[in-house]
Amino acid sequence: MSETTRKPVLFSGIQPSGQIQLGNYIGAIRNFTLLRHDYDCLFSIVDLHALTTRQDPAGLRRKTLELAALYIASGLDPEENIIYCQSHVPQHAELAWILNCFTYMGELSRMTQFKDKSARHKDNINAGLFTYPVLMAADILLYQTSLVPVGADQKQHLEITRDVAIRFNALYGDVFTVPEPYIPKATAKIMSLTEPARKMSKSDQEDSYIALTDTPDTVRRKFRRAVTDSDAEIRFDPENKPGVSNLLVILSVLGGERMDALCTRLSGQGYGVLKEETAQAVNAALAPIQERYQKLMADKGYLTAVLKNNAERAQMMALRTLRKVYKKIGLYQLP
Ligand code: AQP
């Protein structure tokens, strides 16, 4: 990305809070690879967000490098795109504080993710979990982002980001670009394999998700155990047949077959066939990623150099926005 580039900016981030799972890939990373040529892209490893739930320090460090490797292994070039770690760009936390002062408690109280996560982590309902959307707004607004590709679970956070940007701009002039979400309906929410009414999540129990680093045998085993239903008809009906429909979505996206054609082809077959075909499509998609991932993980020096260099590129962009914000709101500037 050059300083003089005219392409609009795309920003998205993933938390290094567990093993990156198939929902993260289909709902986010895969779209990054499809959009990357039309935008100047920043793909962040949002480690500060991950701190809203307890992390083992050594595990967090390891998962940060793993996520950097997975971004690159999935086809994102760290020279064309900025792949960096959120905590290496202090302007995220600085802008988050400012935006905290422009976000209302009532808005944050309505966030579904806060309600879900505070129900799941009753012993640790911390203020960071509550203000998570403000840090996310800072992530996005810091780079004058136009487009944010995310899964459906992040839609509300994008709405609050837009509201805060519009509110701020109304007070101080056009400081922030107001970003648009990019959430293609078909892939917006990949569901858990064991509880198909819930979304697939990397912090859930292991059989509920496919990790991008799972071996082919593990993938096959997890799909064989995936919860379906008892009426034995292959039909796309997310409301009444969430388990079967979820497998169909995964197979259709990764196998490149339209949903109607896929359902016609599989009609009359048993669920065993659907599960086996889905596992094969997933394994075929993951094989080249895993091969590149192994090579990258063997070269930690390279990954560290990428993160260092890209953090510097991100900081230059971030500083421009932050200086403008400080000036507009009246913080005294030193010469
Ligand atoms: N199941 C999913 N289907 C489609 N998209 C998904 N995403 C996550 N799960 C699915 C999208 O992946 C991106 C990165 O997510 P994140 O790591 O920032 O946090 P998350 O949304 O909370 O994802 P997880 O896996 O559920 O993480 P944990 O368990 O740590 O909370 C986002 O764009 C997200 O929408």
Brief characterization of the structure:
This protein has 335 residues and is of the alpha/beta class. It has 13 helices and five strands. Adenosine-5'-tetraphosphate (AQP) binds next to α1.
Which H/E pattern describes the elements?
Answer: EHEHHEHHHHEHEHHHHH
Proportion of strand residues: 5-15%
Helicity range: 40-55%
Largest sheet: 5 strands, parallel
Domains, number: 2
Bound molecules: adenosine-5'-tetraphosphate
Write the CATH fold name of the largest domain: Rossmann fold
State the separation between the terminal residues, measured CA to CA. Answer: 29 Å
CATH class of the largest domain: Alpha Beta
Structural class: alpha/beta
Instruction: Provide the residue-averaged pLDDT.
Output: 96
Layout of secondary structure:
Blueprint: E1 9-14, H1 22-35, E2 40-45, H2 47-50, H3 57-73, E3 82-85, H4 91-100, H5 105-109, H6 112-120, H7 127-141, E4 145-149, H8 155-172, E5 180-182, H9 216-224, H10 242-255, H11 259-266, H12 271-297, H13 300-329
Parallel strand pairs: 1-2, 1-4, 2-3, 4-5
The protein binds adenosine-5'-tetraphosphate.
Adenosine-5'-tetraphosphate is lined by residues 14-15, 17-18, 21, 23-24, 27-28, 150-151, 153-154, 189-190, 199-203.
